[in-house]
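Support case: user asked for a sample of complex input and structure output to validate their parser. Sending the pair below.
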Amino acid sequence: MTDYRAALKATDPDVFEALIGEERRQRDGVELIPSENYAFPEVLAALGTVFTNKYSEGYPGRRYYGGTEFVDVIENLARDRAKALFRAEHANVQPLSGSPMNQAVYLGFIEPGATILAMELSHGGHLTHGAPVSHMGKIYKFVRYKTNPQDGSIDFDHLRSVALKEKPKLVVCGYSSYPRDYDYKPFRQIADEVGALAMADVSHIGGLIAGGAMRNPMDAGFDFLTTTTHKSLRGPRGGMIVCKKEHAKTIDQSVFPGLQGGPHMNQVAATAVALKLASEAPFKAYASQVLKNAKALAAALTDQGAYLVTGGTDNHLMVIDVVKSFNINGAEAEKALDHAGVTTNKQVIPDDPNPPLKPSGVRLGTPAATTRGMKEGEMKALARVMVEAMKNHGDARRLEALRQETRVLCSRFPVPGL
Ligand code: DSN
């Protein structure tokens, strides 16, 4: 069997050296960006296979290329596993990533110029939910709902009044920086009241739903669930859509040939593998531990003077208002934390008065650290390192000492696949 790693090292030492650096970074530091994770080693294996060589435009049994008997097997496996895991009637596993996955729903079901109701970006919504800088924001009229300024939860009275006034064709639920639980029933009711379709983009929490730790929007009668496969699900970079049977044909046509050409079959193979692993008992324990770790991290940060947006978390992520907590901006906090070996990302807070590159917050999440086997005790230790780092953000020696502490902690928790 070819030793691909040895071949890469011999052929392209520059790329190989960068790979070694990235492996070291992932091993020696703690990954707390809530959208990142460590893929299952079996997923990495499936990605590096000859499935990458194969074109297979179309769908199983109906392709525009010959030689598709084995890619049909893996796509059928991935589709069946997705349907079973998310209790859905249909699945499309071809979206190349999160952005095309959401675009496929919009372009398939909503006429250009029509209205879509989605969460305001600074309150936790995502770029692909119609931010003015995205092309989708130019094609559709996006209207916004926000969180309640008192407690940071979704303001359903406000959401309903916007829906009744604007008559959207689609209501989008799903967030990349909203730290609270998602109650899907009021969304479905409001969508029904105005005759809209309901879509949940659960990219961040797809794995937590699959693992039974969070609610499934398909159980509340949503039309579409979209999720990336590389976050809490620990699969390859990619996206997928599950939906009601009545939408199956339109979704499939919208993904191919509407939006994409050939699917990346090594990605589809790796998705099939991730979905198998996500259906097994250890993944349920993992999903539940992600939430326990987030609660522990939020409590420890709060105890040490950090102010969390909405006061805490019900899911895998939280946002620290670092201006209010430590009188630094999000960019300064991100840099100090990086120096201390803790990777996070700067984050706007609801109606942030500061610009996106120097916002008021940093966003943290527990999926990746939990994959390494870290538990509540480690979250407490990490909270102390992070608060120290942010309080001493100008002190390079202190930050270096914290980095050593982080490295020692990490050495007890190997990264799967490394
Ligand atoms: N870019 C992802 C995130 O970091 O939340 C969402 O797609």
